[in-house]
């Protein structure tokens, strides 16, 4: 639809979700938030989707919350109240999510980058936690950003609001890759992710996000159960058979 702000397309197992609101630098307006949530739900529930790519049109990936909508609204009416649900969808998606940035991200846009499993940006892209400079707090995005960043760097960048480049974003853990060819790097990652079994990928992602007990025996017991279930499960047995027969497992998309 011409009036959509977020587009959704599925090809060869890859769901591409495109932010298309360049007039306001892909700000998180009420319409954009609603459509993004709907498309993330569609991707998560579609068995044909193996990987989700989140990208954008225009020169900016996402500038954060729509400040025009925020102006004059009370605390209870702020759009930021809906934002945790989007970050949680990205963080807990059973399908790996790859962010592809050809331009800068600010504030809430950086929270989205951090919530994705893999984030790739153009070398020229820049980032900033600009909240304190307009009198607000990077509170909601801290839930996804802080697990990615080194603590000392988080204090510096959250408190100063300083703009930093993609290479530093890689160094501090916000990005996986900074490149001059975002499309090629995205393809490299999506091709690798498509080799993974869908249920194994979902379970691995969930495992990576779980808090672990300090009791090593309990941790081994829980993870042994998980491992054995997948070794003996349909995907594990198919993967073992494919290895022995020197063929691709059934879940690998056809070329």
UniProtKB/TrEMBL annotation:
Task: Report TM segments.
Answer: none
Q: What InterPro entries does the annotation carry?
A: ClpP/crotonase-like_dom_sf, Enoyl-CoA_hydra/iso, Enoyl-CoA_hydra_C, Enoyl-CoA_Hydratase/Isomerase
| Xref: Pfam families | ECH_1
* Stated family: Belongs to the enoyl-CoA hydratase/isomerase family.
Extract the PANTHER family matched here: ENOYL-COA HYDRATASE, POLYKETIDE BIOSYNTHESIS ENOYL-COA HYDRATASE PKSH-RELATED
Q: What is this protein called?
A: Enoyl-CoA hydratase family protein
Organism of origin:
Lentzea kristufekii
């Amino acid at each position: 639809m011409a009036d959509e702000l977020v587009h959704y397309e599925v090809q060869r197992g890859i769901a591409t979700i495109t932010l298309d609101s360049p007039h306001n630098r892909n700000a998180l307006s009420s319409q954009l938030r609603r459509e993004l949530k709907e498309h993330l739900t569609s991707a998560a529930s579609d068995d044909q989707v193996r990987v989700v790519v989140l990208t954008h049109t225009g020169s900016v990936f996402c500038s954060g919350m729509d400040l025009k909508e925020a102006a004059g609204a009370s605390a209870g009416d702020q759009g930021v109240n809906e934002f945790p649900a989007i970050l949680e969808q990205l963080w807990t998606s059973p399908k790996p999510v790859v962010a592809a940035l050809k331009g800068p991200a600010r504030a809430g846009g950086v929270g989205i980058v951090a919530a994705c499993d893999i984030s790739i940006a153009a070398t020229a892209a820049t980032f900033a936690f600009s909240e304190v400079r307009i009198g607000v707090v990077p509170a909601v995005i801290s839930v996804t950003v802080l697990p990615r960043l080194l603590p000392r760097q988080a204090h510096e960048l959250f408190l100063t609001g300083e703009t930093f480049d993609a290479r530093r974003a890689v160094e501090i853990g916000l990005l996986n890759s900074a490149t001059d060819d975002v499309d090629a790097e995205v393809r490299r990652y999506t091709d690798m992710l498509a080799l993974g079994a869908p249920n194994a990928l979902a379970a691995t992602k969930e495992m990576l996000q779980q808090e672990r007990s300090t009791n090593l025996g309990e941790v081994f017991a829980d993870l042994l159960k998980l491992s054995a279930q997948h070794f003996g499960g349909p995907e594990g047995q198919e993967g073992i058979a494919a290895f022995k027969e020197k063929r691709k497992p059934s879940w690998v998309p056809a070329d």
